[in-house]
Design goal:
transmembrane helix; mainly alpha; Membrane protein; 5% strand
Length: 85
């Protein structure tokens, strides 16, 4: 990564990725687990309503998926911009 425009493009893509994943995490944890919980109360999963499931377990599972997706995406960005390890 020799020039400044390439460096800026890399960091712009990095920040966009972080923002996207934070929005997904917010929607899964706060949105589905708290704000939308009354709307999800009629949907049953594992013996409880979907809103409760997201508040107790679903948000954590989404977070784990996001960790692996972020690592995959950053490895791809690193290769595209020539800064892989």
């Amino acid at each position: 990564m020799a020039d400044k425009s390439s460096s800026n493009a890399y960091w712009k893509a990095n920040i966009r990725t972080i923002q996207l994943f934070l929005v997904i995490w917010f929607v899964a944890s706060f949105g589905f687990g708290i704000l939308l919980r009354p709307m999800l109360a009629g949907i049953s999963i594992g013996g409880t309503d979907l809103g409760f499931w997201f508040a107790q377990q679903g948000a954590a599972l989404v977070f784990l998926v996001l960790i692996f997706a972020y690592a995959w995406r950053m490895n791809k960005l690193d290769r595209e911009h020539g800064v892989e390890e």
